[in-house]
């Protein structure tokens, strides 16, 4: 049987382990999108210290959540007799305190509430009772209370920014991100899958770095075969995941899905006003709340284009699976298994792969900075876009890195299945792009053209004097 090993997460593991040594009560929130590995992280680090653990039940009534609580308490306390179900959460937490008091020893204990938003059903009084548990008892003990939830916006609004008994009580916040490319590689290797980096990146473009999705990959399959089976075959894990994903995290998920659909149609990004117009959602407080919820949950990201002010920021769909679903799975899954392998060489695939690879590069700016040797230099990453006017062409830059050492890296990003060959015409276009950027931005900084592709650039007479630095997949994987 394959052993479960915690991959990556070095920073989070270090933080969680250090909390065992503080000698104080700690209230830790772990936030991250569904399937990203929050539960596995907590259980892996604290496996020997968890005194009590409960997982909320999705869509359950309060009476069912209380029954779930008493069953968990009976099992973990090893009570010879079944405990009577409490009538309220205050009563439930009183039972928990009695159990924890009886089990305390020298070692710091951990209490783990998983999927906390599901425990807090409407008018249940759960959060008030939880606040009472923390303020009246736990805060005085050598204990770690971990609260975890996939509904990141709920966790932030109801707990982190709580105005009542939990106000300012969180002592440590962890926001768990999907795997990077390197972590994805390590995860697959741990499962005995030795895919090359091109195939791993193609897989990442369709599924992102979500461990629950990646565990579906099987030995002996190409990535195209795996995607066919997982995404397009009826019963595949990602065949209808999109329709379940958003309603499981958000109330009134129709608005969230409408925004995601709008952004999927314009991968380069939309302004807030454009989102309102495209999605049909009124440009008011409701839109603000929905955008914040999608950002907190890791589905969309806000980018400020170079030289623009905050109100001119753009939103992009940053969840790889959602984009892949809306571009391909939703329309092609009726064709059944095998469709992706035949569709793999189509113009639509090449258009999508360009946007998807660009999105991956935006998520791996730290690796790009490391490859450029500027990890220690403060720098901001952004995009650049100017519309053309009469007599002057427009200019669009996929990614630029504005550095404090008076240099700007203009990054040209291309997905290819071999070394990228610059033609005479394309080289001329790149020179023109650099000149247009200098004209529009009025920058006095040194401008370097950095070409990021899967296998780098084939050096020829056209690349010389145009490309200042080239990066490939090796650099995006961290070396």
Report on this model:
With 479 residues, the protein is α/β, with parallel strands linked by helices. It has helices at residues 10-19, 38-46, 62-77, 89-103, 116-119, 126-136, 152-160, 181-190, 197-207, 211-214, 223-232, 241-249, 253-264, 272-279, 285-296, 320-332, 339-343, 347-363, 365-372, 424-441, 473-476, and strands spanning 26-31, 50-55, 109-114, 143-149, 172-175, 300-303, 314-317, 379-386, 395-403, 407-414, 446-453, 469-471. The strands form three sheets. A five-stranded parallel sheet has the order 2-3-4-1-5, with helices on both faces. A five-stranded mixed sheet has the order 8-9-10-11-12. It starts with 9 loop residues before the first helix and ends with a helix. The model has no long low-confidence stretch (mean pLDDT 91).
Name the descriptors.
single chain; 5-stranded mixed β-sheet; Rossmann fold; 3 domains; 21 helices; 12 strands; Arc Repressor Mutant, subunit A; Trna Endonuclease, Chain: A, domain 1; alpha/beta; 479 residues; 5-stranded parallel β-sheet
């Amino acid at each position: 049987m394959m052993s479960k090993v915690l991959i990556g997460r070095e920073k989070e593991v270090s933080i969680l382990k250090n909390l065992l040594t503080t000698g104080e009560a700690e209230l830790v929130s772990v936030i991250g999108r569904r399937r990203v590995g929050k539960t596995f992280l907590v259980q892996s680090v604290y496996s020997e210290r968890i005194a009590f653990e409960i997982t909320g039940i999705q869509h359950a009534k309060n009476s069912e959540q209380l029954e779930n609580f008493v069953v968990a308490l009976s099992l973990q306390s090893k009570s010879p007799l079944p405990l009577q179900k409490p009538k309220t959460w205050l009563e439930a937490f009183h039972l928990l305190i009695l159990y924890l008091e009886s089990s305390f020893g020298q070692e710091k204990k951990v209490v783990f509430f998983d999927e906390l938003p599901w425990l807090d059903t409407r008018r249940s009084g759960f959060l008030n009772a939880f606040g009472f548990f923390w303020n009246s008892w736990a805060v005085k003990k050598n204990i770690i209370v971990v609260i975890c939830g996939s509904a990141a916006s709920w966790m932030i609004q109801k707990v982190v920014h709580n105005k009542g008994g939990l106000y300012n009580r969180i002592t440590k916040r962890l926001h768990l991100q999907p795997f990077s490319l390197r972590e994805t590689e390590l995860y697959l290797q741990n499962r005995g899958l030795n895919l090359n980096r091109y195939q791993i990146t193609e897989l990442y473009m369709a599924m992102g770095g979500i461990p629950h999705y990646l565990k579906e990959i099987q030995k002996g399959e190409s990535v195209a075969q795996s995607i066919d089976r997982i995404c397009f075959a009826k019963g595949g894990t990602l065949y209808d995941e999109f329709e379940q994903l958003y309603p499981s995290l958000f109330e009134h998920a129709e608005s969230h899905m409408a925004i995601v659909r709008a952004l999927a149609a314009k991968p380069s990004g939309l302004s807030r006003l454009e989102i309102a117009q495209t999605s049909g959602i009124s440009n008011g407080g409701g839109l603000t709340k929905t955008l914040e919820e999608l950002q907190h949950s890791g589905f969309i990201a806000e980018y400020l284009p170079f030289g623009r002010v905050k109100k001119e920021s753009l939103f992009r769909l940053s969840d790889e699976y959602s984009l892949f679903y809306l571009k391909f799975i939703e329309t092609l899954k009726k064709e059944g298994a095998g469709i992706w392998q035949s569709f793999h060489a189509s113009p639509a695939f090449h258009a999508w792969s360009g946007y998807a690879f660009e999105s991956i590069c935006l998520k791996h700016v730290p690796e790009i900075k490391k490859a450029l040797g500027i990890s220690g230099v403060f720098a901001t990453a952004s995009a650049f876009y100017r519309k053309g006017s009469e007599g002057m062409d427009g200019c669009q830059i996929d990614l630029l890195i504005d550095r404090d050492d008076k240099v700007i890296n203009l990054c040209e990003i291309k997905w290819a299945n071999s070394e990228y060959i610059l033609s005479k015409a394309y080289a001329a276009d790149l020179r023109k792009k650099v000149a247009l950027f200098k004209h529009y931005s009025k920058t006095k900084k040194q401008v370097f053209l950095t070409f990021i592709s899967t296998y780098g650039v084939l050096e020829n007479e056209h690349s010389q004097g145009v490309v200042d630095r080239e990066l490939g997949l090796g650099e995006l994987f961290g070396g």
